[in-house]
Amino acid sequence: MKPLPFLFFILCLANFIQAQSTWPDISKHQGLNLVSEADNITVFTSENAQVDDHTLNLLWDAKRYFDQVFGMDFPVSILFVSNSEWNDYAYFPPPGMPQAWAGNIFLGNEKSIVAIQAEQQLQNLPAEQLKELQSHFGDPLNMDLFYRNNVAVHELGHLYHFFEASKPQKRWLQELFATYAARNFLVKSHPKMAKATAAYAEVGSEAHFPFIKHTSLEKFEELYLPGLGAQNYEWFQFQLFKKAVKLQEKFGEKGLIELRVFLIQTDLTETEKMDYAQLQNQLEEQLGIDMAELLLSWGY
Ligand SMILES: [Zn+2]
Known about the structure:
Protein name: DUF1570 domain-containing protein
Keywords: Signal
Strand order of the largest sheet: 1-2-3-5-4
Structural class: alpha/beta
Organism: Algoriphagus hitonicola
Helix content: 55-70%
Signal peptide: 1-19
Bound molecules: zinc ion
């Protein structure tokens, strides 16, 4: 099999941005056009961008679902920005890749560069795997379903954590929470998309594996996206995705709600940094032995 020089990744750089004092961070709304305001969702567009109704409706549904599951309702701004204007408005590159911070979700108007690259590179997959992906993402592959819609819901999921806290004991737990949240929503409301994204996580994880350097969660914490590089970082995200699939199946919404509480209560602004044994004890105490075991299991 040819090497797959994947360059795409799921952006979760929130830790690198200074906390904002307002929610949503309205400094990011300057220069954008207000399109609509209802049900605690405000929509903006940049000059050359239009609203993508499909993704907006998905986020609308997801917000209603998360509000109900977590028993909260806070304002969210959705900002559609064209790829050419991306760097003028969004928190960070690459153009078109969904990102969230401080109550704002940036969405691309066009397909993201990441999805375009993925579509090209996935053509190098063995025929069987390509066929499997085409059964979910179409032929030719349209990876927007993953890199726009799925990632947008993941990003919205982050906000239900970041609204309360943003310095978790472990970054991998923060990422797992957002993916687990998205997973619950998709399984419940969009089963076809849930199947497609799980299939992609399996195929993508396998395809990346021969080309990555780091596999331990310690390295994920230490190096994160800048140190790991896009491909290795995405491999970790795929592993967390597969873990989220199991969490949803075994612990459903109850586990998700409890994981959120855990993240907030053990935030580093409130508690000391835990070592592995302390983390394990605390997870077992708050989430139960079975869920703690699944959370901490890591086959690499
Ligand atoms: Zn994330």
